[in-house]
Specification:
elongated, two-stranded antiparallel sheet, single chain, 155 residues, alpha+beta
Length: 155
């Protein structure tokens, strides 16, 4: 949910720098990239830029529970084989299978790490700490600051 945003922000910044370099390129058509950058730098052309991207057509109304909150969704499922001691409540996870649709992956290793990390974080939220709810039913145990994330000995 961020690679597309960051990628488009980077593209936006690159277009800004490219536009600033066009006059330098026009005046030096045979210059290499490295030479163009040096010439631009010595001519005090700004070679940095801040890019920004906002996903188009995103809006959501909490009042009417309608709109398009996200550009896309990802889906996943997990199944775990767990042994639970009925007397003590201790548990041991023997096996976990997780499937996740991440679309066209930019880096499978990163995606695998993110999915595994999310599973372990959820495992910690539901097995290591007490879930706390307000009187109106709102869950206040909502992030890793409110519960213990499992360590390698806990998994």
């Amino acid at each position: 949910a961020s690679s597309d945003l960051y990628g488009m922000a980077i593209l936006n910044a690159c277009k800004q720098i490219t536009a600033r370099l066009e006059p330098v390129r026009a005046a030096n058509p045979k210059a290499t990239w490295e030479e163009l950058v040096v010439i631009a730098y010595l001519d005090r052309v700004c070679l940095s830029a801040t890019g920004f991207y906002r996903t188009p057509d995103i809006s959501y109304s909490f009042e009417t529970n309608s709109g398009r909150a996200f550009n896309y969704y990802t889906y996943g499922a997990a199944a775990a084989e767990v042994e639970v001691d009925a007397l003590t409540g201790d548990h041991e996870v023997h096996r976990v299978d997780v499937v996740m649709d991440v679309g066209a992956s930019l880096n499978p290793a990163i995606d695998i790490g993110q999915v595994e990390g999310a599973f372990v974080q959820g495992q910690g939220m539901y097995t290591l700490e007490e879930k706390v709810y307000l009187r109106n039913g709102r869950d206040v145990t909502t992030g890793p600051g409110a519960y213990e994330i499992p360590g390698f000995k806990s998994i």
